[in-house]
Every structure is written in C-alpha cells, then in structure tokens.
Amino acid sequence: MGFDTALTRALGIRVPVVQGGMQWVGYAELAAAVSNAGGLGILTALTQPTPEDLRKEIRRCRGMTKNPFGVNLTLLPALVPPDYGAYAQVIIDEGIKIVETAGNNPGPVIRQLKAAGVTILHKCTTIRHAKSAVKLGVDFLSIDGFECAGHVGEHDITNVILLNRARQDLGGVPFIASGGFADGYGLAAALALGAEGINMGTRFMSTVEAPIHQKVKEAIVNAEETDTALVLRRWKNTSRLFSNEVTKQALKIEKESTSGEFSDVAPYVSGKRGREVFLNGDINFGVWTAGQVIGVIHDIPTCGELLTRIEKEAAETLTRSQSLYKATPQSKL
Ligand SMILES: Cc1cc2nc3c(=O)[nH]c(=O)nc-3n(C[C@H](O)[C@H](O)[C@H](O)COP(=O)(O)O)c2cc1C
C-alpha cells in the first residue's frame, strides 16, 4: 500500500509531502533528510549569496541523497534584486528537475525554467495569482493559506476556503495545500479537499536535521497557535512572524509611526538579525517567521520519523473516513 497522487507520480516521491523553501533553513542537510525520508526536500536558492554558491549547495545535496530534491526561487521586491535569471540558469545547468517558485512577477523565471523542462510548483496566497500562474504553464500550484509562515498576502483567506476555490476554479490543474500542516490528519484533510499533497515549513524547522539552533526548535515546541503576529500590513507586505520581543516592538512602531515610512520599522525586521536567531539560539535577537501550526507541534523528530508517522496517520484517517460511509439498504448512491 502506498500513496498514488498526481504529486507522487510527477515528482517520483513516496509520500506527498513537500518541504517548502525556507530562508536560512533550507540547506542541504534538511533537503536531503526530507528526500531520504520519501518526501520532496527543497534547497532555498537565496540562502546562497551567489548563483555559484547555489551550484555548490546543489552538488553537496546530491552527495547526501539519491532521491529527487528541488530548489526554491523566491522573487521578492528589493532595491537591488538578486540576479534571478543567473540563479535559474544554475538550477537548469545542474540538472534540477523540480523548482518551487514564489513571489512577485514570476513570469520570466517560470518561462526560463519551463523551457528547460523543469516541473514548477508555484506558491501563491490568492486564487487570482494562482490563475495567472496557470496561464504561465506551471505544473502544480502550492496554495498557501492565511495560517502559513512568512508572506501571507493581504486577503487573509484560510485554507478551508482557498483549497475549495482551487478545486473549483483552477480548471483541474493539480495543487497542493500549504500552511497549517504538521501531521497525517492534515494530509488526509488536504487530500479530501482535492489537493494532491501538502507543503510544510514550520513543522520541518522542528526536526533533528533542520540546521538551526536547538533553542529555536524548543521555542516552536513550547509555543501555542496564538504566538504569531502579522507585521508590515501597513506597507502591504504582511508577514506572519513568531511573536517575540522584537516583533512586538515592530508592531508598536508600525501602529504609532506618524511618518508612515518603512525606514522607521526596517531595523526591527532586519533579515540579518533573524538569521542570527537561527545561529545563536537567542529567540529574541531578531524577527523570525513561523506559522500558526506551532500550536500543534510538540516534538523534534527526525525527518524519517516524521514522514513515517505522517504516512501512518494519513492512511488510518483515510481508512476511517471510508468506514464512515457504508452501503445501506436505503442507500441510493
Ligand atoms: C523560517 C521560514 C522561512 C521561509 N522562507 C521562505 C522563502 O524564502 N521563500 C518561500 O517561498 N517561502 C518561505 N517560507 C514559507 C514556507 O515555504 C511555507 O510556504 C510555509 O512555511 C507553509 O506554512 P507552514 O509554516 O504553516 O507549514 C518560509 C517559512 C519559514 C518557516
């Protein structure tokens, strides 16, 4: 017995679980561990300072797993944007066959990757963006609900609605569910809503192989679902962050700033300080992102233990669901 979904078939994976791109977390150690466990591990391109560093990281990951893995390429607004085309070219040259794209104006990069035969999972938080991505020919949508870590978008639509809309309105283009998933019950629920699998970020941070400080993993285990906050809404760049001292300061300034200038809050939401949190384990050193799913994460398993557990829970849940609907003498269906 095993999973047989459009995602497992297209990506050549055993368990329909993707580890989403994560800045300063998505290194070879984690991606290889997820792929070795039967899911799809993903390297995060922009954790590498240059395209050449990404090439080295891809080769390092290949040395750690024989299974398929992907690369995330996130296109975010920046004063001096990274050379996305050069990152995409390295991905192509290194023979990567699966890419998770996310962010603004992904057209040029998606076209470049598609022309090289790469399978694209595009992550988006609205059906409108999903439809634009369908026009670009992406292979899977990764539908990121309001529960998710990181950029939640500006519309605050949770996955129960978004996934239903995806099933109704994406013309049969396959999609996976992202945001709020941590276990096999969630995977079974996503499959029931029409998804072909799930994408998880925060859950994979709290695994043995995630290359971040143990204290961050413990903070996730000890947190509740109410311990995240939305910042930067004022600048239409809303991010869900772990609610620590710096996040609270940033929120206060966002509310109280009379100038409304982003520069007022910028020092508080610095990515550099967030990166330090993962290295030094001081969870109040800077802002870092986590999803509401922190409320249902209670341990720090290996990726292998986690995916085995997810498979077992999903299988049991699907069997139970089937047993809830039986043929009866009156049944007309
Ligand atoms: C620490 C962290 C960093 C992330 N960085 C990125 C990123 O650089 N690009 C991206 O597309 N998504 C990023 N994400 C979002 C994840 O890929 C995924 O979509 C999200 O975590 C799903 O929600 P969940 O955390 O509830 O599972 C990040 C998530 C976390 C937790």
From TrEMBL:
InterPro entries linked to this entry: Aldolase_TIM, NMO
Entry-linked Pfam families: NMO
Molecular function terms from GO: nitronate monooxygenase activity
Keywords: Flavoprotein, FMN, Oxidoreductase
UniProt KW Flavoprotein keyword: yes
Protein name (record): Nitronate monooxygenase domain-containing protein
Record organism: Aspergillus puulaauensis
